[in-house]
Design a protein that fits this description.
Length: 160
């Protein structure tokens, strides 16, 4: 992460040297966008933190880890499919769940379905693309997410 921050600072400095006005305009635009999404971001972070605090680790492990890989895979796929959460929240959450003992396969199922399958976005998506296309896209996305999750489980040695 340090290298990414350093690279960003270097590129920003080079941009500033190239055209101060455009760089400052870009920075102002970025700050405006950040200020617009910050309330929602903080609300989501606080809500997830409260939920993770209230749900005991053993309960999380029971349903997402110890009860069997396939049960965890199915539950994680379900939760990922019905949750709306941006990636910059989902990936740190996955890191927390990994520290609690949830397997890579289950986390892959959760994050992949979270990004690819949209049960709650079905009404909007079907309005623009039609119900048939929306269902086909969601089913194919779910299958791809499950293939990715099982592949990760295999490569990390979680499946025999």
């Amino acid at each position: 992460m340090y290298y990414l921050n350093l690279a960003t600072a270097v590129v920003l400095f080079i941009s500033f040297l190239g055209d101060r006005r455009k760089t400052m305009a870009g920075m102002k635009m970025a700050l405006k966008i950040l200020s617009n999404i910050l309330p929602a971001l903080l609300t989501m972070l606080i809500a997830i933190s409260i939920v993770l605090y209230l749900i005991p680790d053993r309960l999380i492990l029971h349903y997402l880890g110890d009860s069997g890989r396939m049960v965890g895979l199915i539950l994680a796929s379900f939760f990922g499919s019905v949750t709306i959460m941006p990636g910059f929240i989902a990936f740190p959450l996955s890191g927390i769940l990994l520290q609690k003992g949830v397997s890579y396969m289950v986390l892959a199922a959760f994050t992949t379905t979270l990004m690819m399958v949209g049960i709650l976005t079905y009404p909007i998506e079907s309005k623009y693309f039609g119900a048939k296309v929306t269902v086909i896209r969601n089913v194919i996305s779910l299958l791809i997410a499950l293939i990715v999750a099982v592949s990760i489980g295999y490569f990390f040695g979680e499946l025999s």
